[in-house]
Design goal:
The chain is mainly α. 57% of the residues lie in helices and 6% in strands. The radius of gyration is 30 Å and the shape is elongated.
Length: 386
């Protein structure tokens, strides 16, 4: 990297050299999918030798930076004025523009050369993973927040669960603003646990990132290696083979000190419908599945009959469980998430029943005083409203 070129670029920009600066080469940077530097640090990308290369660089930047973020294209080696010409316009040998305008702006070809640079000012405070990690560490420091300082893995457990459900609720509502907020709350929980672990000498946030990074690379040999797979089904089957090999290598033990199986990795704390669907998904990846969906429907009918034939309360509970399980299997075949489907129905029931309550209150009546026929009439009204 030519540091003299960086100094010349800032001289041409008439900007002071930042106290911290990321220097990158355009050809390497353009092959990425996201910027490889923290956005709360300014960057200088050198070697924009051609317009096409510059546009590839901008495409990568737009994965993180907003379209209105201002950048500066400068070629310190280009002289656009005579030494005698000291006018402001002649001294301006750089182009300020927003990332979103880069393609449509008329940029002279003189700005694209091996010495051309793109200066990208910092995005702002708190926009990097490192700055978030720092603020969490500050919360836990002696001069931090008393509440955060007292937390442990155990005390935060309920908050992690709550934030997970709130994130799922945002997903179900398809509210992108809520999703962004709830994912942030979930990330906070992960970072708090990582900071506590760091303080106790267990692991660090970087260990967490490195661990999942390595796992993704290891389990995607068809992307990062030479493995060949046939579509999504092939990916999932290969995924299970890789996980099985990992379990053998680690010698993981499950219940009764036996070697862990492929279903042992499904969390016991999952809601029952989600757990059932995950069990069935994993079993299906190795071929343990009905050949055709008609077999699943036959099994549904069989389980309904067994519910009708149950002779004791214990048998009834057992058969209802079997019926739920096979209904989840039917949902899986239809690529419907059973947990989300039932949550949607629950919300629908809550809304319609609320309509009945509201109308009863408007009539000055208690629900317990209403006849079923009256409530059914209001229920049908609620159905028409959606």
């Amino acid at each position: 990297m030519d540091f003299s070129l960086a100094a010349s670029a800032f001289e041409a920009l008439h900007f002071p050299v930042p106290s911290k600066l990321v220097l990158l080469e355009a050809q390497t940077f353009s092959s990425a999918h996201v910027p490889s530097f923290p956005p709360d640090a300014p960057a200088l990308i050198t070697g924009l030798a051609a317009r096409e290369l510059a546009l590839q660089v901008v495409t990568v930047l737009l994965a993180v930076y907003p379209k209105e973020h201002e950048v500066f294209l400068v070629d310190p080696a280009t002289t656009t004025h005579s030494p005698e010409d000291t006018s402001q316009e002649s001294q301006k040998n750089f182009v300020p523009l927003c990332l979103g305008d880069f393609v449509v702006k008329s940029i002279s070809d003189q700005y694209f050369s091996p010495s051309a640079c793109l200066y990208v000012p910092e995005l702002g405070e708190g926009t990097s993973f490192e700055s978030f990690q720092e603020i969490i560490a500050h919360l836990r420091a002696p001069n931090g927040c008393p509440w955060d300082m007292e937390q442990t893995h155990a005390s935060l457990r309920k908050h992690l669960l709550e934030e997970s459900y709130e994130a799922i609720a945002a997903l179900d509502s398809q509210d992108s603003a809520s999703m962004g907020e709830e994912f942030g709350d979930l990330l906070l929980q992960i970072m708090l646990h990582s900071q506590i672990a760091c303080e106790e000498g267990e692991f660090t946030a970087n260990d967490v990132v490195k661990g999942i990074y390595d796992k993704i690379v290891r389990r995607h040999p068809h992307v990062f290696g030479d493995a060949k797979v046939g579509g999504v089904d092939g990916v999932l089957q290969n995924w299970e083979k890789l996980k099985e090999a990992e379990r053998r290598e680690k010698g993981d033990k499950g219940e009764g000190n036996r070697r862990k199986g492929m279903l042992d990795g499904v969390p016991m704390a999952l809601p029952a419908l989600s757990q059932a669907q995950e069990y069935q998904d994993r079993a299906a990846r190795v071929g343990f599945d009905w050949p055709v969906i008609e077999d699943v429907l036959d099994k549904v009918a069989e389980e309904i009959q067994e519910v009708k034939d149950a002779g004791t309360d214990f048998e009834l509970a057992d058969e209802i469980g079997d019926l739920f399980f096979v209904l989840v299997n039917f949902a899986r075949w239809k690529k419907v998430d059973a947990e989300s489907a039932l949550r949607g129905t629950n919300l629908k029931f809550k809304k319609r029943f609320g309509y009945i309550e509201t109308n009863a209150k408007a009539q000055g009546r208690n629900l317990s005083d209403m006849k079923l026929e009256e409530m059914d009439m209001l229920w049908n009204e609620a159905k028409k409203e959606g």
